[in-house]
Amino acid sequence: MSSTHLVDGHILTLLRNGEEYFPRLIAAIDAATRSVYLETYIYAADACGRLVSQALQRAAKRGVRVHLLLDGYGSADLPDKWVNDLRGAGVEVLWYRPEIARFKLRRHRLRRLHRKLALVDENIAFVSGINIINDVPGGRLIAPRLDYTVQVQGATVEHIQFVIRRLWTLVSWISFQRQRERVKLLAAHKNIEPQKVNFVLRDNLRHRHDIEHAYLKAIAGARREIIIANAYFLPGMRFRHALLNAARRGVRVVLLLQGRVEYRLQHFATRALYDELLRAGIEIHEYHASFMHAKVAAIDGYWATVGSSNIDPFSLWLAREANLVVRDAGFAESLRANLLQEIAHSARLISLLCGASIVYGRIC
Predict the structure, then answer these.
(1) At the top level of CATH, which class does the domain 197-363 belong to?
(2) Which of 56, 64, 185, 242 has a CA between 20 and 30 Å from the CA of residue 341?
(3) Nearest CA-CA partner of 299 in 213, 217, 177, 185
(4) How high is the pLDDT of residue 107?
(5) Catalytic-labelled residue, pool 5, 159, 285, 293
(6) Which of 5, 10, 67, 116 is catalytic?
(7) Can 10 be counted among the known catalytic residues?
């Protein structure tokens, strides 16, 4: 499905699932001559994780500066031997908020590194929703998780580079490393973003609501169609009202949501919203071919976003997230067409009948 688009001086390549993303990521790492940065929430000790680790180690051994930033909760199961092998090859590995007692719930401990970013030689970036984990979940599921990545070349890479290096330096500084580098880096950045390709963050400082606001602005301006595919969908009141208002003014609103139960509490909390959404005329389709991990949207065939941010309290209010927002008909239509194909072939329509939500003919 991969498609390449020229947008405002950028080369953007839309990639579907890990089967398209991982070969490109590994090829970029293998071609690196100066530096590699990789951030991820989950880094699994599986076949995919091994392939990426081997690429990182090859790069480090030929003199490339390789930086791997792992979330301390999402990647906590990565074996020490894997980390030691990476460090032994020359890969610099840091942990974002390492967890000691994983089962004590505190709000500050939910502030995770959930974004999935890569940067190679300061000129190729990947903005993704995909963790470093096998594409196919396994067991009875033989289809890959549904998710998307954008490979980016162009002026926005400078902004992505600053964001990645800044967090790396802050985590290093917290670990009592490179305090001078932190000061120099923070003073050097000029935050100038192109008009049609924007790199949008959610953090706990100056960008607390940027991703949510980007969605709300696009939804408020929609005139024809809103398609949102989101793995963990539990929007707050403002977001729900924006979708309901769009539907009431005649905009077609389509939601592609998780159909398989991955996290029971989240799943049924989302189901509790169905009645209100369906009554407003919003279409809900549940994805069943595999687990859905997508966090994307296409609006009016012109506005699109791809990234790590779900539409739930964890992503919109707590975690560090990163999305690419693109205003371009070709890019948005490519994403839209793929989503509509998934809806037609891999999802099931939810309908409303006699005051109850009916799922594929059965009362839920």
Answers:
(1) alpha beta
(2) 242
(3) 217
(4) 45
(5) 293
(6) 116
(7) no
